[in-house]
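Slide 14.
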Amino acid sequence: MALTTITITGTFTRPNGEPDQGTITATLSEVIQNGTTIIEPTPILGTLNTEGKLVNESLLPFTLVANNDTATEPAGSTYNFLVQLDNAPVRSFSAVVPHTAVEGKIDLSVLDPA
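Slide 15: predicted structure.
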């Protein structure tokens, strides 16, 4: 079975309704493997575009591989997210990016326990 790619969405706004600016970095907690595919815990940088929407550095959808596919080992890995928004305290959280995300997409707010 192959790894499932999931698009992480999100729109960030300031209290006054204007688009926020900043970055979101996701890093696996450990190496994961599915068959012969190995994914190292390398930081993956997302940024907010001029509309406050989460995109990758090329302004394309921000994607991560699901870390709970049936054949992915080890079980129990997470992504560590670092959220750095302008005019807001830096925050971090850990979450599983589920392979069962509807239409292959999930909003970051669903993953964030805050």
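Speaker note: The radius of gyration is 14 Å.
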